[in-house]
Amino acid sequence: MNKITKYIDALPLSEAEKAALPDTSLQAVHEALDADHHAFVREDDSPLGSVKSRLEHSWPDSLAGNQLIKDDEGRTQLNAMPKAKRSSMFPDPWRTNPVGRFWDRLRGRDVTPRYLSRLTKEEQESEQKWRTVGTIRRYILLLLTLAQTVVATWYMKTILPYQGWALINPADMVGQNLWISFMQLLPLHAANRDPDPFRGPFLLGFGRFLDRADGLPAAADGAR
C-alpha cells in the first residue's frame, strides 16, 4: 500500500467511490473528485479543484451560506471576510469657468454634477458625506502648500538682490551692462566667504575677470 492508496482510504467515500478513483497520482485523484473539471496551469493547484467535493462528503453543513467562493483564477477558497464596500472620497470638482459659475449663481441655479445624477437620493447623501471630507482634506493640503511656499520665499529673500525688499526698475535692467549683471549674480564677497577650497577661488577669479572685462580695476580680496 503506497501513499496514494492510503490517501484514498482516508477519504470519507463509499467503497465503490474509492474503487473508482485512479491510484496513479494524487493529481489524478483530485481531478476525478473535481465535479467542475477545472483546468489549472500549475499541477500543485489541482487539490483546490476537489475542495468542494471533499467538504460535501466530510462536512456538508459547512457549505451553507455561500461559504466557498472562487478567485480570479477559478480556484476554490474560503469566504473569510465580507465584500469591501468603499465610498469614494474624491472631492467635488471645481468648475474652472468663472463666467458659468457667475451666471448660475445669478440665476440661483444649483448644477448637480453628472456623477451624482446617476445615483439615487440615498446614495447621493452617503456619497456627499465623504465628498465633504475629501473637500476639507483638499483645502488642508492647499493651505499646507501655501504655507511652505511662504516660508521658503521668506528664507530665499536673504540671497535675492536688495534682500528681496526693494523693487527693481525694469529700465535699469534693460540698460545695465551684461557683465555687471553677472557680477550681481556672483558677488565677490560670496567668493571670500565660501569655505570650499575649490569653489571659493573659482568665484574670486571669475569676479576679477568680469572686473577687467568691464574696464574696472581688479578688486582686492575682501574689498566688497
Give the N-to-C terminal Cα separation.
100 Å
* Percent range of helical residues: 40-55%
Average pLDDT across residues?
Answer: 71
How are helices and strands ordered from N to C? HHHHHEEHHHHHHH
Description:
This protein is mainly alpha-helical and 224 residues long. Among the domains are: 3-78, no CATH class; 98-159. The protein has helices at 3-10, 15-20, 26-33, 46-49, 51-58, 98-107, 114-117, 121-156, 170-175, 178-185, 188-193, 199-213, and strands spanning 68-70, 76-78. The chain has a two-stranded antiparallel ribbon with strand order 1-2. A hairpin with a 5-residue loop joins β1 (68-70) and β2. α10 packs antiparallel against α12. The chain is elongated and about 105 Å long. Its EC number is 2.4.1.-. Keywords: Glycosyltransferase, Membrane, Transferase, Transmembrane, Transmembrane helix. One of its GO terms (molecular function) is glycosyltransferase activity. It comes from Raoultella planticola. The chain crosses the membrane at residues 139-156.
Briefly say what this structure is.
This protein is mainly alpha-helical.
How does the SSE layout of this entry go?
Layout: H1 3-10, H2 15-20, H3 26-33, H4 46-49, H5 51-58, E1 68-70, E2 76-78, H6 98-107, H7 114-117, H8 121-156, H9 170-175, H10 178-185, H11 188-193, H12 199-213
Helix pairs in contact: 10-12
